[in-house]
Design a protein that fits this description.
The protein is of the alpha+beta class and 628 residues long. It folds into 3 domains: 271 residues, BirA Bifunctional Protein, domain 2 (2-Layer Sandwich); 178 residues; 161 residues, Threonyl-trna Synthetase, Chain A, domain 2 (Threonyl-tRNA Synthetase, Chain A, domain 2, 2-Layer Sandwich), CATH 3.30.980. The protein has 18 helices and 17 strands. Strand 5, helix 5 and strand 6 form a beta-alpha-beta unit. Helix 3 packs parallel to helix 4 and helix 16 packs across helix 17.
Length: 628
């Protein structure tokens, strides 16, 4: 089976088990201020795993796109990627271990066709100090399954990952670990705060006997070894405990969360330990071989890095991120620039990202149709970053070599490369080591100090701004704030759903609105947008608000928010609805304040007028408008 066939089969398999498919969440979390990216299928559903009712019911299934920027330095081996898809199914207080374990086994062995003889599982060995017993329930279910499949279900206590490296699996099939196989938001059971839920998990691994064990990872191979002989396929999490001031007690409602890596399952399906050989990535490798006239076998690491990083950048652009020097945009910039740097090692010195982006879009557009509708916008975003970086890359590398000849590089040199040439500090340090140059051990302290100085200079330029970009709360500010909602909707109607708000600022004289778009707007487009805003002002839309759970507002109702905003568990949603109609024209997450009717914006014969349209930064346009 191809990866695409596996994804569709997984959704259909669990639909037959009465699971409701749910759409993927954006790579940029809308309701989790603790992290930059959606890093697992569980993350967007955490409020429901903690007790909130999901509008789709108790049984859910999806395939969630994920990004783990912390894995960027691991990319290059046969299984690590920063971007991946996680197949997931959940029981929110419904079924438990018996059903889940049998279903995931049935999907992997019967639907996908994996060899039962090569599947191994791990379970939690318990925590006696907290009176949490060994997970014998999961082990017993696995034992029955393996026996029925003709596999000896020997159970072995490994203890710790370190013990596994010393002793291997010891011919076990069901392996108990003490320092693995427990899930909670805070890590181990001992570190869980009072009131936190958690529970044991059971991981599934697939053996690739054709891979030789690398003794650099320990004397013996075992399922949690990092040599690549075993690949983890998925993890069944059983949230069944609550930590109290008296210890651990069973939760009244016990949840199941399964997450399985699509790329890894696809690699197992074709019996190849290299995930880059799967149908989700190999077409990109083929493009790179064609462009570079070099082979994957001779330049494996470079091609893997480029493929992974540009897949990630494509989906980040799809979800409204543009390269910048902070937060999500900074990670995106690092991914793109790192891909370009590795392309130099392949001898690719011409622009190539568009051709790779097209290949990525072709791989995914049938299952993620938003890629088809946003293809050109994504290409434009990545093309701009490539052109921008190529203009400075050669100069920056030459400057780095000059600095290296003068002695070891220090924090001032790394900051200069960042500030002048746009080199992320990680790229500067990577290139320093790649060239055999010396790096001052205290470079990071100096670099951070220079960055703090720069931030303080920037902050002194911004005075008296209110939350949401408001410069006050008078009547004119309310009118302009209301007008930004109408402008946002008109922009998306005219330019497409790829338009994402990137900030606003309001004074008594005008509004300013920043949004993602790859090119200058035409006079015809600006005229159309003006007309749309004035049309809704004339309709005298009713402006009202209600509070909703954040996930419901963003993922169920489709309310819009500004890029990068961080939300709590509940948000205020403003709607602008025609009189006598139940369908809002505009629906946005916002703190207010606004007028009560859009007709108030036309008081005194005023009309909405765009004063100026210009570039704010790479990939971001800015409109200034007023009521005149």
């Amino acid at each position: 089976m191809t990866a695409q066939e596996i994804r569709r089969a997984y959704i259909e398999f669990f639909k037959k088990q009465r699971h409701q498919p749910i759409p993927r969440a954006l790579l940029v979390p809308q309701n989790d201020p603790t992290t930059l990216f959606t890093g697992s299928g569980m993350q967007p559903l955490l409020p429901y795993l903690l007790g909130q009712e999901h509008p789709a019911g108790q049984r859910l299934v999806d395939s969630q796109t994920c990004l783990r920027a912390q894995d960027i330095d691991e990319v290059g081996d046969n299984r690590h990627t920063t971007f991946f898809e996680m197949l997931g199914n959940w029981s929110l207080g419904d079924y438990f271990k018996q059903e889940q374990i049998n279903w995931v086994w049935g999907f992997l062995t019967e639907t996908v066709g994996l060899d039962p003889q090569r599947i191994y599982v791990s379970c939690f060995s318990g925590l006696p100090s907290a009176k949490i017993p060994k997970d014998r329930d999961s082990a017993a279910i696995w034992s029955e399954i393996f026996t029925a499949a003709g596999v000896e279900p020997k159970q072995v206590d490994i203890g710790t990952v370190e013990n596994g490296a010393k002793n291997g699996n010891r011919a076990g099939r069901i392996l108990f670990y003490a320092d693995k196989n427990w899930w909670s938001r805070s890590g181990s059971a001992e570190s869980m705060p009072i009131g936190e839920p958690g529970g044991p998990d059971s991981e599934l691994f697939y053996l690739f006997p054709q891979v030789k064990h690398d003794p650099a990872y320990g004397e013996h191979c075992h399922v949690n070894c990092d040599c690549g002989r075993y690949i983890e396929l998925g993890n069944c999490v059983f949230m069944e405990y609550l930590r109290t001031d008296q210890g651990f007690v069973k939760l009244p409602k016990q949840n199941v969360d399964y997450g399985g890596g699509l790329e890894r399952i696809a690699a197992a399906a074709i019996d190849n330990p290299d995930v880059y050989r799967s149908s989700l990535m190999w077409p990109v490798i083929e493009v790179l071989q064609k462009i570079s006239a070099k082979t994957y076998e001779a330049h494996t690491t470079s091609m893997r890095v480029i493929t992974d990083h540009l897949r990630a950048a494509t989906f980040l652009a799809l979800d409204g991120v543009v390269p910048s020097n902070k937060e999500q945009g900074y990670v995106m910039r690092r991914l793109v620039r790192r891909a370009i740097r590795f392309a130099f090692e392949l001898g690719i010195e011409q622009n190539f990202i568009e051709e790779v982006t097209v290949a990525v879009a072709d791989i995914y557009h049938d299952d993620y149709p938003e890629l088809a509708t946003s293809r050109q916008r994504i290409i434009d975003v990545l093309n701009r970053e490539e052109k921008l970086f190529r203009q400075t890359l050669r100069k920056g590398l030459k400057q780095l070599d000059k600095l290296g000849l003068a002695g070891q590089l220090d924090g001032d040199a790394i900051f200069m490369l960042y500030d002048t040439y746009g080199f992320p500090f990680e790229l500067s340090t990577e290139e320093t080591f790649a060239r055999g140059l010396k790096l001052d051990p205290k470079w990071r302290t100096v670099f951070d100090a220079r960055m703090d100085q720069q931030r303080r200079r920037s902050q002194t330029a911004a005075k008296g701004a209110f939350k949401g970009g408001l410069g006050g709360h008078g009547d004119i500010h309310k009118k302009y704030h209301t007008a930004t909602h109408l402008l946002y909707k008109a922009l998306r109607e005219t330019l497409g759903d790829g338009v994402i708000q990137h900030g606003s600022n309001i004074t008594e004289e005008r509004l300013r609105f920043d949004f993602s778009y790859p090119q200058k707007l035409t006079p015809e487009q600006l005229s159309t947008i003006e007309d749309k805003v004035n049309e809704q002002i004339a309709r005298d839309l009713i402006v009202s608000w209600s509070e909703y759970p954040t996930d419901v507002a963003l993922n169920q109702m489709g309310a819009l928010g500004a890029f990068g905003d961080r939300y709590g568990s509940k948000v205020k949603v403003y709607s602008m609805t025609p009189p006598g109609d139940d369908t809002p024209y505009s629906l946005e997450v916002c703190g207010g304040p606004h007028v009560n009717h859009t007709g108030e914006l036309a008081a005194g014969g005023l009309a909405f007028k765009i004063i100026k349209e210009e570039s704010s930064s790479a990939g971001i346009r800015r409109i200034k408008a007023a009521l005149r």
